């Protein structure tokens, strides 16, 4: 059984940093993308960052240069280092995995497994 568990969310002041973790158990076979998404109240879920099985990384334009996605294969854990946090980064953050190679990395409809989310709140 595949299970994704996020942790690391917190309330921080603008300019602060957080590192989110996503522990994956029962790792899905043939995973191609692992990604981070976020959803703020009243807004659509959006892709924040993803990494594929070749190690290529992808980022939402507004987080480029501030966020870094990485993974520890030995620990089956995905990370999102977030620096220079802004109030507009406030959202519930989710990790997800996907087998499908074709299609945009940021299309949440193409992801197979999801965690329950961890809340990030950035105050001005």
Task: Describe the protein's architecture and organization.
It is a single chain. It is built from no helices and eleven strands. With 124 residues, it is mostly beta strands. The relative contact order is 0.32. The mean pLDDT is 96.
List keywords for this structure.
single chain, 124 residues, mainly beta, 7-stranded mixed β-sheet, 4-stranded antiparallel β-sheet, 11 strands, globular
Q: What is the string of helix and strand elements?
A: EEEEEEEEEEE
- DSSP summary, beta strand count: 11
The structural class is mainly beta
Average residue pLDDT: 96
List the helices and strands and how they pair.
Blueprint: E1 3-7, E2 11-13, E3 18-25, E4 33-39, E5 46-52, E6 57-59, E7 67-72, E8 77-82, E9 91-98, E10 113-114, E11 118-123
Parallel strand pairs: 2-11
Antiparallel strand pairs: 1-3, 3-8, 4-5, 4-9, 5-6, 7-8, 9-10, 9-11
Provide a compact summary of the structure:
The chain is mainly β. The protein has strands at residues 3-7, 11-13, 18-25, 33-39, 46-52, 57-59, 67-72, 77-82, 91-98, 113-114, 118-123.
């Amino acid at each position: 059984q595949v299970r994704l568990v996020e942790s690391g969310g917190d309330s921080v002041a603008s300019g602060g940093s957080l590192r989110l973790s996503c522990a994956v158990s029962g790792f899905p076979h043939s995973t191609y993308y692992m990604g981070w998404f976020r959803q703020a109240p009243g807004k659509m879920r959006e892709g924040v960052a993803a990494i594929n099985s070749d190690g290529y990384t992808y980022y939402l334009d507004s987080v480029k240069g501030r966020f870094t996605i990485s993974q520890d294969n030995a620990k089956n854990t995905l990370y999102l280092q977030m620096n220079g946090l802004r109030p507009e980064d406030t959202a519930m953050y989710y990790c997800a995995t996907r087998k499908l190679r074709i299609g945009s990395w940021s299309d949440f409809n193409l992801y197979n497994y999801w965690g329950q989310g961890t809340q990030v709140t950035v105050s001005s």
